[in-house]
Amino acid sequence: MSKSPVPTPHNNAKVGDIAETVLLPGDPLRAKFIAETFLEDVIQYNTVRGMFGYTGTYKGKRISVQGSGMGIPSIGIYSYELIHFYGVKNLIRVGSAGAINENLKIHDVVIGMGACTNSNYADQYNLPGTFAPVASYELLQKAVNVANEQGTKVTVGNILSSDVFYNDQGLEPLRQWQKMGVLCVEMEAAALYMNASRAGVNALTILTISDCPLTGEETTSHERQVAFTKMMEIALELA
């Protein structure tokens, strides 16, 4: 673990306040919902910038949940600090996504085996080629097994982490990714996978379909905060 001082500019926590397994919802209100709904003996360790963080126990296992914000730069900061300053070993993004695959419906659960991206985040590593951000197989396998035990259907495959929400080219880029078998689009997983790979720790992304950009179907913001419990119940079992 890094000897850099804590708390950090983005986190009130002291060393030891955060568990080795952390759930990372983008929305801090989803972090609050998870902590209040599923965890016992909860302590809030972070309020900086309204990006709430909590530690508690789930079925006797210590686990934390930390809001990570929107986009690759934001999750890049939070996941890096969790890994290098707080010793986190397992990082599980629980987020929302827009379906690209025509077989996915609202509220379906997707597990990101790999994360394509249009971001330049990997440029910092000065690699002699194109890096493929992938999940940790250990967490992926366990998540699929947990989902099967819980009776939750999950779709596993490639997802897209996009830097662009309002694309000047409209929906055409999503149709191009659809041709390559990409399941859905979100904005964070690729950076999480890269940070985890570089540090030699585990990362996984579990998503709930909140909208279908190609058809216009969507859920409400309140549903995205509190109704996506199936993916949360899978993620919590990975501690």
TrEMBL record:
**What InterPro entries does this protein map onto?**
DeoD-type, Nucleoside_phosphorylase_CS, Nucleoside_phosphorylase_d, Nucleoside_phosphorylase_sf
What are the residue boundaries of the Nucleoside phosphorylase domain, all occurrences included? 22-231
The record's catalysed reaction(s) read: a purine 2'-deoxy-D-ribonucleoside + phosphate = a purine nucleobase + 2-deoxy-alpha-D-ribose 1-phosphate; a purine D-ribonucleoside + phosphate = a purine nucleobase + alpha-D-ribose 1-phosphate; uridine + phosphate = alpha-D-ribose 1-phosphate + uracil
Q: Where is the active site?
A: D211 (proton donor)
Q: Which domain of life is it from?
A: Bacteria
Task: Quote any Pfam family the record assigns.
Answer: PNP_UDP_1
Q: Which GO terms describe its molecular function?
A: purine-nucleoside phosphorylase activity
According to its UniProt record, this protein's enzyme class is: transferase
Q: Where does phosphate bind?
A: G26, R30, R49, R93, V94, G95, S96
Can you tell me which residues bind a purine D-ribonucleoside?
H10, E186, M187, E188, S210, D211
* Site entry (Important for catalytic activity), positions: R224
> Record keywords: Cell wall biogenesis/degradation included?
no
Which UniProt keywords are listed?
Answer: Glycosyltransferase, Transferase
Listed NCBIfam families: deoD (TIGR00107), PRK05819.1 (NF004489), PRK13374.1 (NF009914)
Query: What does the record give as the function of this protein?
Result: Catalyzes the reversible phosphorolytic breakdown of the N-glycosidic bond in the beta-(deoxy)ribonucleoside molecules, with the formation of the corresponding free purine bases and pentose-1-phosphate.
Task: Give the UniProt family note.
Answer: Belongs to the PNP/UDP phosphorylase family.
* Assembly, per entry: Homohexamer; trimer of homodimers.
**What's the protein name?**
Purine nucleoside phosphorylase DeoD-type
- UniProt lineage: Bacteria, Bacillati, Bacillota, Clostridia, Peptostreptococcales
